[in-house]
Every structure is written in C-alpha cells, then in structure tokens.
Amino acid sequence: MTTLKQKFVLIAFFIIPLFSFSQHVSELLCKILDTKTSEPVMFASVAVKDQNVGVISDDDGSFRLPITYKRNNTIIIISCIGYRTLEVDVSTLASNHLNILKLDPQIESLSVVTIIAEKDSKKEKADYIPVRDIVRKAIQNIPLNYPTNAHSYIGYYREYQVLNNSYFNLNEGIMEEFDAGFHTNKLFYKDNQAALYSFKQNTQFPQDTVLSKAYDNKNLKFIEQATISGFGGNELCVLHMHNTIRNYEKQSFSFVDVFKENFLYNHVFRLANKTYLNGKPIYEIKFYATEAVAGVKNTATGVIYIAYDTFAIHKIEYNGFEKNNEKPFYSLTVEYVPKYGKMYLNYISFYNSFKAKSVNSFKINSVEFDADDNAFLVSFSNAIDTKTITKKKRFKFNYNDERLRVSKVEVLTNKQLKISLDEDLSIDEVEDFKTLKGIDYKIRHVLDLAGRKLNELTFIDADQFREYFVQEVFKSKAVPNNLIFVNKIMPLSKSKINNHALDVAKYWINSPLKTTKN
Question: How many of the other CB atoms lie within 10 Å of CB of 202?
C-alpha cells in the first residue's frame, strides 16, 4: 500500500440575519437544540410519521417544513444518534417565528464497562468484544447490511462556498439518485445514475466567480495540503466518491484508502460511549490515523457509530488536519439509517478548504457626481463589506490638489456607495465635478464580502461544501427509461432538468435560514 506522509489525497475534479418570515409564508422554520447544552443538533432526521418522506436539519440545527403539514395535522418524528426520539404535532408550530425544538441526550459512558472487561473472569472475557473486532465485524458485514438490489433516493442537493462566515454561490435542487446496489461501482456502473428535477442558483446569497472556478492544482484555485486525485467527474461525483461506506472496496481518500482493506490498520481505535438511535444501542468508537501512515505534519481523527446487534455502520465522521491546527482542511460525514431491513443513505456532507487567487477582482467600476445631492456615487465590482466603510477618512477626494471634506458615507446598494461632501460648490466647480475634471480620489481599507482589498492580488482562504440529504427512499427501483440523466463529466449547472417527471411540490428545498454560517 502506498502512503503519503506529507500530503493527504482528496478526490477533486475539474469542473446573517435571518431571512424575513414574510418571504416564507409557505414554510415553517424550525431549529433543533440539545436540551442540556442548548447547542444546535446538526443533521437530525425529521421524518413525517406514516409517510416515507422527511428532511435533515442543517449543521446549525435548522430546517424548513412546508406549511401544508401544519394544515394536515401531521406528526413529525425527530431522531438523531445520541438523542431520544421526539414526536412533534406540526399543528402546534408557529408560522410567524422560528420554532425551537429540543432533544434529550441519550449517551452512556463505557469507561466502567472497559475496566470490568479487563478483569480475568472467564465469563466477563467471553462477553467482551475488543474494539478492533467490532470495527472488523462491521466492515465484514457491509454486504449483509446494505442493499445489493436496485434502489433510489430522492433528496435535496446543494453546493456552496463559505468565506468570512458567509455563504457564496449556493446552488441547490431536488435530485434522484439511482443505485444498482453495493456490489456495483458507484461512479462507473451504467445503472448508477442521477436525475435532476430542479436545480438553480439561490440569488438570496452572494455570488463570487473567483470562488466558483474549477480547481487547477497550484494556479488559480487549489487545495494547499492535498494532492488531487484523477478520478474524473463532476461535483456530484466528488461527493459520492468520498462515501467510504458505499465505496468500501474502492480507493478513497487518505487515510481511509480502501476502506475494506486499510481502514482498520491505518487507525487506532477507542470505545468511547454507548449511545442510541430510536432506543437501539450503538457503539460510539473514536479513532485517529497512525503516524506511520499520516506522517509528522498531518493527522486525521474521527468517529464511527456501529449497531450493537447487526454491526451495521450507522455513521462515520472523518476529519483531516494539519498538526497544531484545530480547523480540519477536509471533513466527511456520512450516515445510513435502517429501513426495510437494510441500511439506506440518510445524508452525506463533504467539506474541503481551498485557496483561490484574486487578481484585481475587487475594483471600482465607476465614479459619478450627483449635483442634486452634492455627492459622489462610487460603484464597485463586488458586494461591499459594510463594516469596512464606517470611517470617513478612508475616502479621500481632491479637487485641483485640495482635499474635499466628506460629510457622510452611505450604502445605496450592496455594490454602490454615496460619498456626500460638505462643500459649497460654484457652478463651474459643479461642471468640473460632473466630468471629474481636476478630481482625483483614493479609497483605502475597504473590503468586499470575500475579504479582498481594492486592486490587490491576494490569495483567498475559503471552504467548499457539497451535501446531499435524502427525503425519500425507494427500496426497489430500477433506472427508468424516460429521464434525462446527469452527465457525470459536466458541471451540474449544465445538466438538463426533468421538469415534469416528478411532483417536486412533495419535496422541499431546505436552504440555510441565514446568509452566514457560524
């Protein structure tokens, strides 16, 4: 097995204020919190009782629910590993403000169990399963616990970048994933396809063309700590090829490598807690990559959740770090849930950090003088970070080498400022100002939302997210012949939409409730 000691291998490809509730009269807005800590419960399952549909909460615990469920007296069931399951009558939820829902933790420490298991009692030893054997059994049981027949998922897909805690370039839609079974190659087998029923850019979030460029290794956009693998494919392929459970027999990323062959030997495991999902016990096992595999500069840590009875893997969290840096430069979370006697995908979320070169991409497009308001109107190429325009001294305007007094700086639009003057101008001076004759100006320390300075070449550090949240599972469904499928080597934005093939009103776009990501 080839290992890299200096860099991780990732699979990469070429390719707030809360929103006004008046805009969402068709939706209920909710947030799930931990009862004890009041922290958000991320990626909780919200299922509609007695129906095969549901949604997953965001990483801040928030989710949207169509208002129709309130009118129909629906019950939703909220579940998450490590918490007691909660049922909520949707009719009790408010439509005019954010609904806070709380889950009770359900975790037991295994420290006592571990100590007892180390005693010399033959009975106690017989009942004890070493943690590595639990993981080994879970990997061996993948063919038994996951579907090998054709099935499909309909869910909510999104991709976006995060910079300075703000979302950029949020693309989202409803998609169906057809999977011929775990014995097939997820990327290359002919019947493993995806169909888009809706997909568009959410214009309520800022756009930035520099952040959305394709990776090119070390020029305009690249992952600093990683080597790019040449699997090929679009952004959806990026997401699914990092699913270590689904691709357990295929080469993945460091230091999972081939999950079936290398995961057990590349990591050190520790049995952490006994937790629950819907009342059923689950092992919570923490792990880290060995230094022999990760090298001296990098490390990886994670958690794997394995069922007590079937040894089915419910969830795996995997994070790659540079040592002495608390923020991971890539992170995978994938969860499967039991349905119809097998484990089906619930959600997958993959994140990686990257650098993008900004070549004078924040600049002044135009300066005009408004004689009626005695003010300069300055238009910029990008949305302005309004926190950087509070000081008037940052805006210097001269007329025939004499400094003009600035009285006020106002925001007209997200890309335009109004610089008002405290000057009494003659008719001739007004005419000069209209044509900018004798006018020179300097604007300093103003940034755009991405943190760029005016007219400077900079490298931007940002984060890329790709996520798929299942809303309905079809346990037996072959690929139909009446759909247009996603071209796996083309960006999703260029894929054709199956506009009338599905009642998309049954499913919902679970956009973030805020334009900022905490």
Answer: 18
For the chain, give the mean pLDDT: 88
- pTM, entire model: 0.81
Q: Going by C-beta distance under 8 Å and a sequence separation of 6 or more, which residues neighbour residue 252? A: 11, 241, 242, 244, 258, 259
Q: Please give the pLDDT value at position 125.
A: 45
Per-residue pLDDT for 399 more than 60? yes
Q: Is 410 in a helix, a strand, or coil? A: strand
Q: What is the CA radius of gyration of the chain?
A: 27
Q: Tokens in use for 475?
A: 């346990």
Secondary structure (3-state) at 399: strand
- What's the per-residue H, E or C state across 270-332? EEEEEEEECCEEEEEEEEEECHHHHCCCEEEEEEEEEECCCCCEEEEEEEEEECCCCCCCEEE
CB 196 within 8 A of CB 495: yes
Q: Is the dihedral of CA 241, 243, 245, 251 positive or negative?
A: positive
The string of pLDDT tens digits covering residues 111-129 is 544 433 333 444 444 456 8
Cβ-Cβ contacts under 8 Å for 3 (sequence gap 6 or more): 254, 255, 257, 292, 293
Q: How far apart are CA 6 and CA 293, in angstroms?
A: 10
CB neighbour list of residue 468: distance below 8 Å, 6 or more residues apart: 155, 156, 157, 175, 177, 239, 240, 345, 347, 348
Residues 471, 340, 498: CA angle, nearest 5 degrees: 35
**pLDDT 10s digits, 457-486:** 778 888 999 999 999 999 999 999 999 999
